[in-house]
Amino acid sequence: MYSFANDYSEGAHPKILEAMLKSNLEQNPGYGLDSHCERAKALIKKEIGQNDVEIHFIPGGTQTNLLAISSILRPHQCVVTVDTGHINVHETGAIEATGHKVVTVPNEEGKLKPEQIIKVLNYHKDEHMVQPKLVYISDTTELGTVYTKEELSAISKVCRQHNLYLFLDGARLSSALASDKNDLELKDIASLVDLFYIGGTKNGALLGEALVLCNDTIKEDFRYLIKTRGAMMAKGFLMGIQFETLFEDGLYYELGEHANQMARQIIKAFQKKKIVFYQPPCSNQLFPILTESEKQKLESSFIFQVEQEFPNGTYAVRFVTSWATTLESVQQLVRAIETL
């Protein structure tokens, strides 16, 4: 039974494993102070087009979000996100555990709108309520949609007008950048947000996220904060090797494009059967709406997740493709869809 449940079911891309094996007996300095991390940072800075950003490699996404948000907010401040935001529904209260409230607004296709930020600010007016200070978004969103340059620019403008930090979660940024709906590049993101991260875990790495600090005011003592939060790996060079490999010849982008190419074939198959989607499909996360019988037929051969059950007995389910999704598995799924 083939799994379309997520994009982190497999280990790592062969090129990454080859690079790690080749350097396996090297002796490297610890805690990310090695030549592999330095070269990986230089490669990423070249893609971003900014040499003054600060880059840190963090083992996982929740750690990265917790570290980034808690390092910025003062005790009385909160983070603003949509109700489907990863920090709100998939991180077991990690942000709240640091003493900071997560204030949510209803999502629109998984996205946050500038006017929603203004509404939160207008409501939280005085010292009797938490003070909004940071805005959290993700690209792709939890519903597989992507932000356009116009949308991100509008959010950035509001944040800068109101002295708010803007943080973009890029766990699936490779898929967002490869989307047909995308018109952003890494350099655009770096110019519009205060910090963001480039996901490796869900794009061919064994583990690791590259956290990019763009705003000078949040760089001070950041390595101390990483250590305090238990996110500093002694063998940090293992993440350096992986990001070095991902960015030295465009592999990062290739893997995101592969995931999306596999997804496009699945999208066409559902559309041919007149099966609609819960959200517009444009990345490696797809949310078709199935009847009970359709769901059961596909469940007999494939693993996927039920995202939401509707009162009429239908289901929004989630299929996820990845850097490792095989053409054969997609063709099998397409044939199964054709029988619905």
Description:
There is one protein chain. It contains 14 helices and 13 strands. It has 340 residues and is α/β, with parallel strands linked by helices. It has 2 domains: 2-7 and 252-338, Aspartate Aminotransferase, domain 1 (Alpha-Beta Complex); 14-251, Type I PLP-dependent aspartate aminotransferase-like (Major domain) (Aspartate Aminotransferase, domain 2, 3-Layer(aba) Sandwich), CATH 3.40.640. A 7-stranded mixed beta sheet has the order 2-8-7-6-5-3-4, sandwiched between helices. α7 links the parallel β5 and β6 (165-169). The chain is globular and about 60 Å long.
Which short descriptors sum up this protein?
340 residues, alpha/beta, Aspartate Aminotransferase, domain 1, Aspartate Aminotransferase, domain 2, 7-stranded mixed sheet, 4-stranded antiparallel sheet, 17% strand, globular
Task: Describe this structure in a few short sentences.
The protein has 340 residues and is α/β, with parallel strands linked by helices. It is built from 14 helices and 13 strands.
